[in-house]
Recover the amino acids of this structure.
C-alpha cells in the first residue's frame, strides 16, 4: 500500500513533551481528572475497562492512565519514550498509592524488541503520540499488533491539510529559538486567542480554559508549537490501513487541520496472528 503522509526533515529538536506534562501536573485538579474520565466514558463507555488490560502509549502526564486505574482496569501499562513524561506519570502513581496493577516504563513504540515483551491488551490508547515518532506508519503498525482480538484501539492523529508546510515551519522555528524566543511565540499565540475572544464579545482573560480530556489551553499551545517530529495523515488512509490489518472502525470524529482526528477501532476476534 502506498503511503500518503508528509514528514518533517531533520531538525534539532529542543522540545520535551515530558517537561510540558510535568508543568501541567502543577495545575491538575480532580476536575481535570473527571474531565479525562468523561472523555474515556464517551469513547469506551463506563464499564468496558472493568477487569481489562490497558496499554497507554505515550502516557504523557499520566492522567488517563490514572483514570484507567480508577475505572477498574485489571492491568495498566504506561509507556513513554521521554523520561520526564515517565516521571510525571509516576508522580500520579505515587499520589494514587502506588497500585501494583499499574506499571510505568520508559520505552519506544518503534522498539520492536521491547514491544515483543509486552503481550497484547484489551484496550490500547495512543492520543496524539504516533505522529510525533518520525515514523507514523511503522508506529501505527506496531501499535496495532498490541491489540488483543476483540480489543479496542483508540488513537488520535493530526489532520492533514494544505497548511502542513507552514505549520512545520512554525514548529521548527519554535524549536530553534532561545528560551526567550519560545516564550515570545507562546505569548503571541495567547495574544491572538485573547483578541479573538474580545472580538466575539467574550472575556479575553478567560482564554486559558479547561479543555476536554483534562487539558488546558496553555499547555496545549506549548505542545502544539514544540511538537516535532510532526506528521499528518488523511482519515481515509488511516481507516484503509487499519482495516487491512484486521480492524473495524467503531467511531471516528474529524476535526480541522491543526487538530487531531480521533479514531476508535475494534480488532476482529478471528485474528490470531499475534
Amino acid at each position: 500500500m502506498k503511503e500518503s503522509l508528509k514528514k518533517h526533515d531533520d531538525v534539532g529538536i529542543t522540545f520535551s513533551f515530558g517537561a510540558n506534562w510535568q508543568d501541567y501536573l502543577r495545575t491538575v485538579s480532580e476536575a481535570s481528572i473527571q474531565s479525562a474520565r468523561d472523555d474515556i466514558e464517551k469513547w469506551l463507555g463506563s464499564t468496558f475497562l472493568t477487569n481489562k488490560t490497558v496499554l497507554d502509549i505515550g502516557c504523557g502526564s499520566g492522567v488517563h492512565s490514572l483514570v484507567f486505574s480508577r475505572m477498574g482496569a485489571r492491568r495498566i501499562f504506561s509507556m513513554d519514550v521521554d523520561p520526564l513524561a515517565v516521571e510525571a506519570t509516576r508522580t500520579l502513581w505515587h499520589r494514587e498509592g502506588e497500585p501494583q496493577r499499574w506499571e510505568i516504563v520508559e520505552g519506544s513504540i518503534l522498539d520492536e524488541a521491547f514491544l515483543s515483551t509486552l503481550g497484547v491488551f484489551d484496550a490500547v490508547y495512543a492520543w496524539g503520540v504516533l505522529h510525533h515518532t518520525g515514523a507514523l506508519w511503522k508506529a501505527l503498525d506496531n501499535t496495532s499488533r498490541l491489540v488483543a482480538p476483540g480489543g479496542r484501539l483508540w488513537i488520535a492523529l493530526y489532520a492533514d491539510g494544505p497548511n502542513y508546510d507552514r505549520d512545520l515551519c512554525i514548529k521548527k522555528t519554535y524549536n530553534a529559538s532561545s528560551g526567550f524566543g519560545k516564550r515570545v511565540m507562546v505569548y503571541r499565540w495567547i495574544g491572538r486567542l485573547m483578541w479573538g475572544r474580545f472580538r466575539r464579545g467574550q472575556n479575553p482573560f478567560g482564554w486559558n480554559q479547561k479543555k476536554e480530556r483534562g487539558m488546558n489551553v496553555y499547555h496545549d499551545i506549548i505542545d502544539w508549537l514544540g511538537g516535532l517530529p510532526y506528521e499528518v495523515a488523511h482519515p481515509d488512509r488511516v481507516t484503509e490501513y487499519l482495516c487491512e490489518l484486521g480492524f473495524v472502525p467503531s467511531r471516528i470524529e474529524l476535526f480541522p487541520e491543526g487538530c487531531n482526528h480521533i479514531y476508535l477501532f475494534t480488532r476482529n476476534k478471528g485474528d490470531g496472528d499475534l
Summary: The CA atoms of residues 15 and 226 lie 5 Å apart.
